[in-house]
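Need residues for this backbone.
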């Protein structure tokens, strides 16, 4: 039996994950209140430790709560899977430092297909001419998503910037275009964010050349792929030595696909 504590279980993703786990025979899930850690959450975690035990903490909450939970996981030597997004660079560094003594998997996107798409776009960014092929990213989400751009889109930009040897900070264009801007600069990765209604999550990267273009799009219609990924990550992380991993480490997808 795998005992999983789910932080953020009253939210959209955490709730969907709890529901998904109900149908898995060898898993016992416990909801942990991340938004009131001090009042309830820590007590729930301690009770789990003293009772049936606890194998891994899975977190879909918010950056502040994740950092607190990470400290608890490190102090109690418990592996952690972090699906929460929206961290600043400083928060991400702090999270990785805190979780280094235990085994932890951090991924802004738990879908296997999205991780494969990251590899595909990283290869495309590398082999397509850096000086003539422009890169644009478009992401769409439901109206309640708090952060923009999505961490998945930022990771896409980070991957292609690395492959092209560009500084992410210098090449990132933060807004959609508006006004008389002149010619597009060459070293540019633009991200456009769309928010509305109950739009499903969608990420597209466009490699635009002269007379032709290539697009890679990932669409998720339900939260099931993320739940599946988080469970797979939980089963994997409890067997790893201490250190901070991502889903690409777990999937073992080679850096070069073609
Ligand atoms: N990695 C992936 O594949 C993936 C997929 C989907 C979503 N996500 C990320 O998962 C996170 C949650 O998404 P969601 O759509 O479920 O959001 P949500 O519906 O707003 O739920 C977030 C949950 O986190 C807890 N929470 C909210 N505000 C908090 C605060 N200020 N402090 C501590 N805890 C707080 C609450 O749960 P409790 O009351 O139970 O504590 C809340 O229900 C986001 O960062 C999102 O981007 C990641």
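Answer:
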């Amino acid at each position: 039996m795998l005992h999983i504590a789910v932080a953020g279980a009253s939210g959209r993703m955490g709730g969907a994950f709890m529901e998904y786990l109900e149908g898995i025979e060898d898993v016992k899930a416990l909801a942990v209140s991340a938004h009131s850690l001090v009042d309830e959450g820590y007590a729930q975690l301690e009770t789990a430790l003293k009772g049936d035990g606890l194998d891994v903490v899975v977190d879909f909450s918010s950056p502040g709560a994740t950092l607190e939970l990470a400290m608890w996981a490190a102090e109690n030597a418990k592996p952690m899977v972090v699906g929460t997004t929206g961290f600043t660079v400083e928060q991400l560094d702090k999270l990785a430092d805190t979780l280094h003594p235990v085994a932890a998997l951090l991924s802004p996107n738990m879908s296997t297909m999205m991780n494969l798409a990251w590899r595909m776009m990283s290869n495309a960014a590398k082999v397509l001419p850096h000086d003539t092929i422009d890169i644009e990213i478009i992401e769409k989400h439901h109206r309640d998503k708090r952060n923009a751009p999505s961490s998945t889109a930022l990771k896409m930009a980070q991957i292609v910037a690395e492959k092209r040897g560009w500084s992410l900070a210098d090449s990132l264009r933060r807004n959609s275009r508006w006004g008389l801007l002149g010619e597009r600069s060459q070293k540019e990765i633009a991200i456009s964010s769309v928010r509305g209604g109950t739009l499903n999550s969608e990420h597209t990267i466009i490699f635009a050349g002269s007379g032709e273009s290539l697009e890679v799009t990932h669409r998720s219609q339900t939260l099931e792929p993320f739940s599946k990924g988080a469970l797979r990550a939980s089963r994997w992380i409890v067997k790893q030595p201490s250190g901070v991993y991502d889903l690409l480490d777990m999937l073992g997808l080679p850096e070069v696909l073609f």
